[in-house]
């Protein structure tokens, strides 16, 4: 695997605000986030025999709070140590630890289901990350990214990030639904289902 120098990456997650959408009081924002996780749950319901599940890139653990409602045995990891402190406070009793998506702790073929939610768009090397996820995965991946260019169009319409043409700070990669499907098929496995809750694309894939 390619050696990753984290200090020379464009992606700097410690500089990004991940909690805004989870704490927003805006009715539309709350609806979109709730619909996102309803969609993730609908994909999870298509899996079977999942006893070991792991979420990568959990930030402060807000997504983990929702996932653990269906998977009490879920573990989580995050690269930024400062975020892990709050992630553990938000998820008492859960196994949460520090790791890089480019160098995962689990052994080969040891995780039944991996979650990677709103992470891949932030990465300098998404293909390498998918390869490392495939290494530890035994079967399933549920992965979600912004659906482009819809994501940027909606940002532009609400007069956000105008100087960056609607691009959210920290987003280095931009995939349409079809482009994202091709990426997952090439670097992970067979696509079982694709959902498009506005404004995301979420895929359930099974490892080749």
Topology:
Elements: H1 20-23, H2 27-44, E1 53-56, H3 62-67, E2 75-78, H4 81-90, E3 95-98, E4 111-117, H5 126-136, E5 137-146, H6 150-157, H7 177-187, E6 189-195, E7 200-207
Parallel strand pairs: 1-2, 1-4, 2-3, 4-5
Antiparallel strand pairs: 5-7, 6-7
Textual characterization of the structure:
It is a single chain. With 208 residues, this protein is an alpha/beta fold. It has one domain: Rossmann fold (3-Layer(aba) Sandwich). The protein has helices at 20-23, 27-44, 62-67, 81-90, 126-136, 150-157, 177-187; strands at residues 53-56, 75-78, 95-98, 111-117, 137-146, 189-195, 200-207.
Compose a concise summary of this entry.
This protein is an alpha/beta fold and 208 residues long.
Taking the alpha carbons of the first and last residues, their distance comes to: 19 Å
What shape does the CA trace take?
globular
The total number of structural domains is: 1
Top-tier CATH class: Alpha Beta
Number of strands: 7
For the record, what is the CATH homologous superfamily label?
Vaccinia Virus protein VP39
Gyration radius, in Å: 16 Å
Mean pLDDT: 92
């Amino acid at each position: 695997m390619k050696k990753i120098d984290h200090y020379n990456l464009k992606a700097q997650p410690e500089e990004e605000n991940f909690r805004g959408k989870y704490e927003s009081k805006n009715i539309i924002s709350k609806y979109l986030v709730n619909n996102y996780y309803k969609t993730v749950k609908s994909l999870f319901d298509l899996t079977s025999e999942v006893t070991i599940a792991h979420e990568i890139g959990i930030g402060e653990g807000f997504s983990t709070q929702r996932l653990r409602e269906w998977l009490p045995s879920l573990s989580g990891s995050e690269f930024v140590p400062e975020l892990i402190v709050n992630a553990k406070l938000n998820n008492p009793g859960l196994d949460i630890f520090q790791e890089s998506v480019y160098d995962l702790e689990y052994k080969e073929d040891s995780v039944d289901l991996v979650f990677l939610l709103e992470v891949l768009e932030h990465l300098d090397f998404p293909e390498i990350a998918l390869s490392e996820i495939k290494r530890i995965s035994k079967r399933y991946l549920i992965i979600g990214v912004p659906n482009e260019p819809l994501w940027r169009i909606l940002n532009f319409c609400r007069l956000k990030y105008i100087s960056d043409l609607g691009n959210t700070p920290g987003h280095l990669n931009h995939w349409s639904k079809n482009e994202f499907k091709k990426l997952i098929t090439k670097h992970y496995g067979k696509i079982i289902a694709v959902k498009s809750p506005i404004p995301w694309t979420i895929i359930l894939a099974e490892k080749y």
